[in-house]
Each structure stands twice: as C-alpha cells, then as structure tokens.
Amino acid sequence: MNRTFTPETKERGRPRRFDPDQALDQAMLVFRQKGFHAASMADLSAAMNLTAGSIYKAFTDKRTLFLQVFERYTSQRNADLRQRLQPYATGREKLVELLRFYLDSAHELEGRRGCLVVGSATELQVLDTELSALVRHAVSRNKAFLTALLHQGQQDGSVATGINVEAAAELMLCITFGLRVVGKIENIADREATIKLAMKLLD
Questions:
Q1: Residue 6 and residue 18: Cα distance in Å, rounded?
Q2: Which candidate in 34, 97, 103, 174 could, as Cys together with 39 as Cys, close a disulfide (CB 3.0–4.6 Å)?
Q3: d(Cα 183, Cα 109) in Å, to the nearest integer?
Q4: Alpha helices in the chain (DSSP H)
C-alpha cells in the first residue's frame, strides 16, 4: 500500500513529501551495493533524495531503515521466485528454473548490484543480534525452500531417491549464493551449461 510521508524539514520551512516505498527502493540499492556498515547517511541521503534529517524523522535511524529495506527485499524476491516457478510441475523443473532465476539475477547491472541477503551474510559477524538473526532466518528460509523442492522431486521421480536431501539442499544453497557473489564481478559465461552441471548432482 502506497503512503506519503511528510517529515518536517528546515528547507524553506516546508515539509518534504515523498513516497516511502520509492525511498526504500532507493535505499535498497545502496545497501545492496555497499552493505549495512559501509552505507553512510550521505550515501542514503543522495540516493533517496532526502536530507538526513528527513530520513531520521521517517525511519528513526539507519538500522531501522535497513530492517524495513531487508524485509521489502526478501518479500519481493520470494514473490518473484514463486511466480517464476509456478508454471512448472516437477521438483526438478522448478529447481532448474530456480537456478535460471539466480543466474538472471547475477547478470549485468542486476548482478553488479548484488544480493542483499548474501551481502548481509558476509557481514554477519559485525551485525547486532537482531540483524544477525534476521539474516540467518532469510538464509534458513532459502534452504528450507530448496529442501522442499528436492523432496517434491523425489516424490514425483524427477530427482534420484538416493540423494541425501539435506546435503543436496546445502550444496544448492552454496551454488545459488555463489552465483550472486560471482555476479558482482562478472557474468557467468554459459548459463545453461552451468545449470546442466549443477543438476547432475541430483541424478
């Protein structure tokens, strides 16, 4: 639901109006590219086109802003992924499309921007308890989703029944997160070949 915030500012004595969802999306780009600690208020102010005072009045502090951005990012990503997988019937087909989804996300500009979950996971040791728990939960949710797809594949016969699902889910998680790390630097040369190699793990 779109809302319009009107935090007070001292600029010409008038309140500045802005769309909070658009502001969160602009802040999201900064956090994706720089991480929580490296993102300065000056960076966020420039990206959001708001004064630091306006950001503090609307979002309290950088930490609260990050919490809202992280929730919005994971919600959007999960919805996009489920929409991509919806047309596919078997667990294996869904896993193939999931890998394609991550490869698309790791390509060109989107890839260079990075993944907020993966980037935050690399900062885990320097995040406070609540932020760390938030990131861990997001990673655990990704693993649980992969586990569910692998179980579905075994049930419908598209994934070998002898596969250790727990180990396979962990390995697939490493692959998907690794794709986002590589995407910060360069494009994957042959995306379909990468998918075929990864799926051989499930035969």
A1: 7
A2: 34
A3: 9
A4: 20-38, 41-48, 52-59, 62-85, 91-105, 108-113, 116-122, 129-156, 165-183, 191-199
Q: For residue 10, what pLDDT is reported?
A: 42
Structure tokens belonging to residue 198 = 């990864």
What does the alpha-carbon distance between residue 32 and residue 112 come to, in Å, rounded to a whole number?
A: 9
Domains and CATH numbers, the chain: 9-70 (1.10.10.60), 87-203 (1.10.357.10)
Of 119, 81, 76, 77, the C-alpha closest to 99 is 81
The 10 Å Cβ neighbour count of residue 2 is: 7
Q: How far is CA 122 from CA 25, 33, 132, 135, 192, in A?
A: 21, 13, 10, 10, 28
